[in-house]
Amino acid sequence: MSLCKELISTQHGDVRLEGHLIYPQGSPTPLPTVIVCHAWAGCDAFAQRAGERLAELGYAAFAADLYGEGRVGESQEENAALMQPLIDDRTLLRDRLVTIYESLRSLEQVDAEKIAAIGYCFGGLCALDLARSGSPLLGFVSFHGLLAAPEGIPTEKIAAKVLLLHGNLDPMVPTEQVLGVQKEMTEAGADWQMHVYGQTMHAFTNPEANDPDFGTVYSESADKRSWQSLVQFLEEVF
Asked: Which of 4, 86, 166, 214 is most buried (most C-beta within 10 Å)?
């Protein structure tokens, strides 16, 4: 399948966000669309490849840039420096996510009534924060995401479906966060489900994750199972 890929710039304050819209060439538009929120490194090849895989399923995908200018970290230190300001200011992060969603709705390739969001690691937190904003997407998916709700910012009612894909041995997501997000999603009214993969650590979908001491280890079985869960979830919500 041939894919089209376009660089889409969105202005948020004084920051230019440079995302990638990916969709099947020659497909009738508008298409159901999936926002892909990147992990802590930024909108890198992994995030864009996730968008390509979604486009190969017949959807449009938007690999979002949360950091601005398409910045991508090259080390754990750089990744943390890019991510931390948004972790520290969840109001800023939520506003940036909503801006991306609103700008995406106006694109001719995008069916504004059929949009979902997924995310990996930090991006899983982003997908959940977009859900927490009350934005009217149809579905939200977190792959090995950070699950803690922001402090001092209320979770709005969530009418959408939510899918949480979590490694049971993820050292970055303590049990309190797992129980907390279940309680939060229930109270928000979400139609939620959580799949927990045994013997599985953080970043289980990333083939380059191979650092047990840091807690990031690829799992081929969890990667395949979680992708299949995503495919079924999108078929349901769209």
From this structure: 166
